[in-house]
Amino acid sequence: MRNVTPYHPAPPPPEEPPSAPPAPIAVVEPPAAIMRAPMPVSRPNGIDRQTFKQLAKGERTVEAVIDLHGMTLQAAHAALRRFVELQAGTGKRCLLVITGKGGPDRPSKLRQEVPLWLETWSPPVLAVTSAQPKHGGAGALYVLLQRRR
Question: Are 68 and 114 within 8 A, CB to CB?
Answer without folding.
Answer: yes
